[in-house]
Amino acid sequence: MSVVGIIGGQWGDEGKGKIVDLLSEKADMVIRFSGGPNAGHTVINSHGEFKLHLVPSSICNSHAISLISSGVVVSAEALLDEIDLLQRSHVAVSNMFVSERAHLIMPYHILLDKLEEESRGGSALGTTLRGVGPAYEDKVARRGIRVGDILDRDNLIHRLRIALDHNNTIITKVYGAAPLSLEDIYSQCCQYAERLAPFIRDIEPMVQEALDSDALILLEGAQGTLLDINFGTYPYVTSSSPIIGGACIGIGLGPTRIERVLGVFKSYITRVGSGPMPTELMDEVGDIIRERAHEYGATTGRPRRCGWFDAVAGHFSAQVNGFTGIVLTRLDVLDGFSSIRICTEYRLDDKRIRHFPSNSSVLERCEPIYEELPGWTGSVSHVRRFQDLPAEARTYVARLEELIGCPVDFISVGPRREESIVIRPLA
Fold first, then answer.
1. What predicted TM-score, i.e. pTM, was given to this entire model?
2. Which terminus of the chain has a lower count of CB atoms within 10 Å, N or C?
């Protein structure tokens, strides 16, 4: 038995979809453990190109069981859209299941997400407006609707009435918007139940059976460590815990079962939405990286903010997750730069610091202190062995290993599965 976590080490969008798709070729089970349709994982393989938001990125490997765990908040509409897309592309979905304990994103969650962001004005958090935050709020407040609830119509109408009464009060009294209809939402849920019933399972026994056998299990994270509700740049964070600890809670998995934790990092760094980002490049270099890498959100289409690699934040991510190895993606994007910078420290007022501040207002005042390394000429996208990379690229990788504090196990040099360098394969 081997359990391997695939965790975003930055502010999300690190390329976890490609990595899970690649590594799932050898996996028996892949489990998405947190987040919702606010995540966007792009997968490119022989079946085509897919932008997945809920379905695990392993779905194109039919031998692997793909699970959506109880830690995920599920939009039934988004999930059905993805199932339809995959089936039109002749990708089998018969091995994909969603936990009956997972919570549903309801129409009132999406409306509340929009109303709350609008009310913040210039202080908006930059959410994806998918209703994820309000769904987690209802979950914690114990009035959420779970996936399994839609299969029991009598229980559903009872629970839905309680949840809608509360949320309609906020919609009408706080925001002055029109209330939503109980009958309409109930009818919609019943329609979803008819189509989703074959996919809804009590997945915990399936996970336990895999754990007890000689299975290779991948834990697919969404978003990134710096967006974690506890350890991210609060309040500019997501509503769940995308770190490896969130996998234990989201799946029902003992921490001692996890043998390997891979942190996925871009060779530079990006961020979507509001919040501090010390190494953000507001110049031609940032524009070149964005256009060369097509840094636009898979979920929202918003342009991503781009910057040099932040090793202060990277080291913090490694500490919080206990990374055993690094997956370095998009190395090809740095082709052709005469020099490449790495942020090794921050300047905070008159001090130099190497720790990642817990307070966003403090991080906002931090200025990056850079170390400059020589770049390389030519393209690395054709390289498949680490020793065949340009010497300057190998030096850059080695320096990131030193600063983050763990070895690089895999390097991605392009968006496709085969555009990868394997240094330390999965067992």
1. 0.93
2. C
